[in-house]
Amino acid sequence: MKEKVTALNLEPSGELSEATRAYFAKCEEKLGLVPNVLLSYAFDEKKLRAFTDMYNDLMLGESGLSKLEREMIAVAVSSVNHCYYCLTAHGAAVRQLSGDPALGEMMVMNYRAAELTPKQKAMLDFAVKLTETPDKIEEADRKALREAGFGDRDIWDIASTAAFFNMSNRVAAAVDMRPNAEYHAMAR
Known about the structure:
about 0% strand
């Protein structure tokens, strides 16, 4: 039986393009799976491309933030939003990138329980405040990040990553997006 990816019945309109098939093959090669989030967007290749372009830029592109730090932001934001898909997928990424399964679990439950550097805590505090009360962000919040060692470009990347996952969390909740079963066993 085919795994249900979302509560919606959206099928690709026609055959996937060569570029999308190649992208999915690269996912299979590197991850051992095609993430269900990509399959969810595959009904409209233009939307899929926009999603993957933004995701790849934020999570894999050039940044003063490490890949682990970006994944930590994804998990902290998704924890506030109780996003099952992102907590499962990005919790696995934190476990894998950090080599520490306990860190991945603490991040999913409550990042404040983890032994973080002051810089990481400042970053996550900002991302969570931006998630919970965006109207309350002020210069003092940016100043705290600067004092923790982040530059203005880093602040942009923290904010952009947090904002992207807030959007993704809401779409995942709206369509009941389900994580790939393989994520549950990764890096444990």
